[in-house]
Amino acid sequence: MKLLRPGQKALRSGQYAMCDPSGGKIKEVTLTKGEPFPRTEKPGQGYQWVDATLDESVELDDDIGSGMDCMFCGGGLSMDGSCLKCGKQN
Ligand SMILES: [Zn+2]
Q1: Ligand 1 centre from 62 Cα, in Å?
Q2: DSSP for the chain?
Q3: What is the Å distance from ligand 1's center to 69 Cα?
């Protein structure tokens, strides 16, 4: 059982489970990407990835469009300038 060590930085935001060396879950903690794992209660304990936070999926959705707004409806534009909401060409 490979566990992430306290002090090691989280590679992605989400929920992690604090585990004992055999993988038994002690409690869950939520970490932001780049944040170090907190100290464990006892030596040998570590962390395991549980689940992504909702924030991360929102970020991914934002990356689909061009970042511009439709001049007709205010919806997001795709890379070719067509509106993702009303379909009109901008
Ligand atoms: Zn539109």
Answers
A1: 16
A2: ---BPTTSBPSSSEEEEEE-TT--EEEEEEE-TTPBPPPPSSTT-EEEEEEE-HHHHHHHHHTTS-S-B-TTT-PBB-TTSBBTTT--B-
A3: 8
**Per the domain annotation, does 37 fall within a domain?**
yes
Give me ligand 1 centre to Cα 57, in Å: 23
Q: Do 20 and 48 belong together in one domain? A: yes
Q: Is residue 27 part of a domain?
A: yes
Q: Measured in angstroms, how far is the CA atom of residue 75 from the centroid of ligand 1?
A: 5
Convert the pLDDT of each residue in 46-74 to its tens digit.
Answer: 999 987 555 544 444 444 556 788 999 99
Task: Give the number of domains in the chain.
Answer: 2
Q: What is the pTM of this model?
A: 0.54
Domain match, 63 and 77 both:
yes
